[in-house]
Amino acid sequence: MSLDGFDQDSYSEYRKNGDIKKVLEGINNISEAKKRNRSSVRMVIQFLVNRKNEHQIKDIRHYAHRMNASLSLKSMQIINKENTGFWLPSAGKYRRYEKDGNEYRIKNSYPDMCARLWFNPVISWDGKVLPCCFDKDAEHIMGDLKEDSFRDIWNGPRYRIFRKSILSNRKMTEICRNCTSGMRY
Fold it and tell me: What is the pTM of this model?
């Protein structure tokens, strides 16, 4: 789950019309259910670090600990290039991009590998199976759960061909050019 701010102002700066109270209530409900049921399910709170929330990292660490959750601090993907400077955190270690002349470019060397393709599929609201969370516009649909089983999609020809293309030349796939997989912080 993504908690991209620790108060309503910083949260809604990125999560437009988002309600921080609902998110915190949901995290608390999951944490309580884990305790009540002695569940070993691992809860991870993702925090997309940006200029508007980076001052809250210490607080979010304490909160994650209280909720018995892991915390994943992530650099934020910026789609609208004109806003890059607005969102970039001041701490360089949380920046996905670096300034190169008048442009920003990702700090990734794009190794021809990607664990996400074997561990992090995304299922969209309408049952489409996507290779990862960077396919924001569902351009690489691997299959549809209304038509096939997840196992058939996961092991099917579309996934095999897509994985092979990433392993041979990841830079050629648009969604991979803004990805942090393999990036060193």
Answer: 0.70
